[in-house]
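BUG: 3D viewer hangs when loading the predicted structure for this chain

Environment: internal workstation, default settings.
Expected: structure renders.
Actual: progress bar stalls at 90%.

Input used:
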Amino acid sequence: MSVASQYYPNEPTVPVVQTSAIPGPESVKGLEALGKVFDARPAYFLADYEKSLGNYIVDADGNSYLDLYAQIASIALGYNNPKLIEAAKSPEMIRALVDRPALGNFPSRDLEPILKKILKFAPKGQDKVWSGLSGADANELAFKAAFMYYRSKERGYHKEFSTEENTSVMRNAEPGSPHLAVLSFKKAFHGRLFASGSVTCSKPIHKLDFPAFEWPHAEYPHYQYPLAENEAANRAEDDRCLKIVEDLIKSWSIPVAALIIEPIQSEGGDNHASKYFLQALRDLTSKLGVVYIIDEVQTGVGATGKAWCHEWADIQPPVDLVTFSKKFQSAGYFFHDTLFVPNKPYRQFNTWCGEPARMIIAGAIAQEVQEKNLLEQCSRVGDYLFAKLEALRSKYPQKFQRLRGQSRGTFIAWDLPTGAERDALLKSLKLNGCNVGGCAELSVRLRPTLTFEEKHADIFIEALAKSVSEL
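Structure tokens produced before the viewer hung:
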């Protein structure tokens, strides 16, 4: 019996769309009411999560969609997963929700075993974790850790703060408030907070009207596809971008303390970084004394066929910090060097220090992924799905430009000739029963759950072929 059948014996066998437009009338009515107390303008439809099951999301009009977007890549095991419901009903969860502890000051007896479950799923080379509340928060916390580490190396780890540092920091002045930078990449998305906003460079709407740090953006490689036919050109592109990174680090007006990169830029258009590029960044950051941060918020927890996408690159030595959220239903960063633990308490600290309820769910997700061999399944299904997409590309080459994600699980994307055609395709797919997301200006991105199987892929390909033929 397949994993999806074990979890969801009553999962729908096909999507059903009963309305002629999406959102349908009940969704429209519900969103209008919601809009009076909440900004509902970005909503696609009003969801009914009580009726959603497995790989199918149901809306307020009773439409059921095969979901290949999964809450912007955030649902690992499907809707109403029985094992996660079991974890949600546990005594540990009740304590975490009802008596939510301020973990820094009053950690619970449950915390160590909860964290050990998470650390069993940590990226290779990482054995410590610090918890946060969201992907953006995870990245902001990682920047704090990087800055403290960088300054501690300059000052001497065990040295006390000087009187000048203690007084100047209260005026937001140097040396207590040093001028340091984080290098990121054009088209990157790392969050919508202040420091994370400064390293985000995908769409203006994410960061308009709030102040930004003067931090550099390097160029992310833009490859030609298929990869096997363009090795020389893509290696030259890697080298071009690496030179830009090195030149920026060496010439920027303030010291670059850290570099952050997504192994696949997701919001920015599903741009993939090669093993060569990711390893070369490790060599470069090690040589120049820059903290290397991998942002696995969207790529992590199995979607690429590895627990963590950067593990495909086998980066040596391991990167310094790995941030996570989304499919893990929790957030934070992994690390291994004890020098990233601040030299004094209360420096990396807030009331909650994360969310133990979400950590419990993360541990349960990790356990299910491992016990059900969902990484192997994701790789197998991804290969099956990619082959089906290649066949469609042969028939409609203009509608499947730069098809990418081969051998990267179900983390697959392609481009349409124009943004209008991409948007029309996504709209048509919904009417044909598939909830699919886009990214950047031209791209369609697939982000199904880890319980997505060949039978789901067949349903999607049928809907996709129909939608493409209608464009």
